[in-house]
From TrEMBL:
InterPro entries: ASHA1/2-like_C (IPR013538), START-like_dom_sf (IPR023393)
Name used for this protein in its record: Activator of Hsp90 ATPase homologue 1/2-like C-terminal domain-containing protein
SUPFAM superfamilies (alphabetical): Bet v1-like (SSF55961)
Family of this protein: Belongs to the AHA1 family.
Domain Activator of Hsp90 ATPase homologue 1/2-like C-terminal: 23-159, 190-320
Length: 328
């Protein structure tokens, strides 16, 4: 976790975030001033940002919105006040509507981004200056502290070369809090094909099988919001176990980047929210699945089934059976 400190100062009406990174100051600067890189971390897990405008000049504006798993949008704007490469920049940060106009009744603040070199890399100091104690309290009450902490925790993956960050590390499971788990796996193939492998029933049947000894008996995919999907498996040969399956509904589709679905075991009422994100760099795709569980007990019970091991075997099969043949 790169964030070392988040503090609020009611007397000086500020919120300050300090974070250390094992990357040079120039690399940190580019992460904060390139909208394509900002989109990968500016927004907590489950609320990724999309920048629609980025005029990085004094007096220029950046417009963005963050999208929830249910498709809700929360917009924001930056007006650049000064820029001093690579040491920092200042903006007026405001909540914005779909047209980029400030939302009445929502606080605006002056936000300073400062970057400095350290013995181990670089440090960011981000300070938000509020007009009143009420504005500071409003932003904190909206979850700004924890949201910022979780957003900045995504920066390590951005600052490193993607293959350096994830190649050869298999399927990784991160417990973000009691109900959220992030699963990541780098697969050696282009995003368009990885997306199709998740949304083409014939391709799904080739790789989404978990451990050896199981076959997929049914695959009905959902490719539009509101559609249902259903996948079923059964043991083959001497494999022990009972047939089972999962089903759910599509809540959001942003091909080939993001798909959000509900998921429940067939015949069971308990469901999770699965947020699939795909990011491609240098011919490899980072698959990220953010799972929201109804409670900690359900989270622990499902993880204890060996779910991550089964996902790793499926991802390995995806590379072997679907992606590698396209390179021959």
């Amino acid at each position: 976790m790169p964030v070392t400190d988040i503090s609020t100062d009611a007397e000086n009406l500020t919120m300050t975030v300090a974070a250390d990174f094992a990357a040079p100051i120039e690399r940190l600067w580019h992460a904060f001033t390139d909208p394509a890189q900002l989109e990968r971390f500016w927004g907590p897990p489950g609320w990724p940002a999309t920048f629609t405008e980025f005029d990085f000049t004094v007096g220029g504006k950046a417009l963005y919105y963050m999208t929830s798993p249910q498709g809700e949008k929360s917009g924001g704007s930056w007006e650049f006040l000064n820029i001093l490469e690579p040491h920092g920049f200042d903006v007026i940060d405001a909540f914005a509507d779909a047209d980029g106009n400030p939302i009445e009744g929502m606080p605006a603040m002056r936000m300073t981004f400062g970057f400095e070199s350290t013995d181990t890399g670089s440090r960011m100091i981000n300070t938000s200056h509020f007009d009143s104690a009420e504005a500071l309290e409003q932003v904190v009450a909206m979850g700004a502290v924890e949201g910022t902490r979780m957003a900045m925790a995504q920066l390590d993956a951005v600052l490193q070369d993607l293959r350096e960050y994830a190649q050869g590390k298999g399927t990784r499971v991160e417990l973000l809090d009691d109900t959220h788990v992030r699963i990541t796996r780098l697969v050696n193939g282009p995003r368009e094909l990885v997306w199709r492998a998740h949304h083409d029933a014939e391709l799904v049947k080739k790789w989404m099988l978990g451990p050896d000894g199981w076959e997929m008996t049914e695959s009905v995919v959902g490719t539009e919001v509101g559609q249902s999907y259903r996948n079923s498996w059964a043991p083959v040969g001497d494999t022990e176990g009972e047939p089972f399956g999962f089903e759910g509904e599509v809540l959001l589709i942003d091909a080939p980047r993001r798909a959000v679905t509900t998921e429940r075991m067939q015949g069971m009422p308990t469901q999770t929210l699965n947020d699939l994100n795909l990011y491609e760099e240098d011919g490899a795709t980072l698959v990220t699945v953010l799972i929201e569980y109804p409670d900690k007990e359900t989270r622990d019970m499902i993880l204890a089934t060996g779910m991550a091991d089964g996902m790793e075997e499926s991802f390995a099969r995806l590379e072997r059976e679907v992606l590698e043949p396209t390179r021959s």
